[in-house]
Amino acid sequence: PPELHILNNCSPGQLEGLCSFLQLSTCPEHLLVCFCSWLLALTPDLSYTSAAILAEQLFLKRVLSLTQPPSRHLMAALTSFSSKYSQPFCRVLVAAVLREPGEGAEQTKLVCELVEECLEPDCVRLVLSQVLGVPLSEKLLPVVQAVLGRQEVLPPELFDLLVLTLCRQAPAFATSLNYAKLVTAVLTMYQTQVS
User: Fold this and answer.
1) Helices in 42-139 by DSSP H: which ranges?
2) 135 and 99 in contact (C-beta within 8 Å)?
3) 79: exposed, middle or buried (C-beta count within 10 Å: 0-12, 13-18, 19+)?
4) What letters, b where the CB count within 10 A reaches 16 and e where it falls short, cover 152-176?
5) pTM for the full model?
6) Angle at 141 between CA 137 and CA 144, to 5 degrees
7) pLDDT per residue over 82-135, tens digit each?
């Protein structure tokens, strides 16, 4: 709809106010899919800041409150939005999931699914750097495993950070099966780089 062009002309504060006025954070999920498909068609593309605000307003509360797998509508909306605005999406959503204390099993599964099926290679690397920027926990090991499963070429500094983190954290994961699988995957996939 032509009205959506206003999104390109809003200041960050105005955009937050507009999202609040439209109650985007609580709109029904089938409408969320429709809204995201409109965003994909919008020209010119949203600015990074606007996309980050929309990622937060549209998805953050929904994702952080998941206690069961996301509905197909929510998954479709997430996939659609992240296909075009993956950098701001990762910086807002993935970062929030990583900061959340506790188990966060559904959130972790969701991030793994997005890494495995939706995100572009540069965003997969961004997710890995975000994970390695916080203390590793049992909850985050599947995310690293999902990144490795993509078999992307990692820049040397990111690969070094991965190996260093795995080495430093080894004592904390002495009895972890997931950690053992992760180390095995690194040794198998990157055997020429590991000394």
Assistant:
1) 48-55, 61-64, 72-84, 86-89, 95-99, 105-117, 121-132
2) no
3) middle
4) eebeeebbebbbebbeeeeeebeee
5) 0.86
6) 130
7) 999 999 999 999 888 888 766 678 998 999 999 998 888 999 999 999 999 888
Q: Provide the residue type at 104 as one letter.
A: G
Are 87 and 126 in contact, with CB atoms under 8 Å apart?
Answer: yes
Contact 79, 110 (CB under 8 A): no
C-alpha dist (Å) from residue 143 to 3, 94, 97: 38, 10, 11
Instruction: Judge whether 103 and 139 are in contact, CB under 8 Å.
Output: yes
CA distance 96 to 76: 20
Q: Both tokens of residue 31?
A: 């409408």
Cβ neighbors of 53 (< 8 A, separation 6 or more) are: 12, 15, 16, 19
Calpha distance 153→1 (Å, rounded): 40
Alpha carbon distance 33, 73 (integer Å): 6
What length is written for the chain? 195
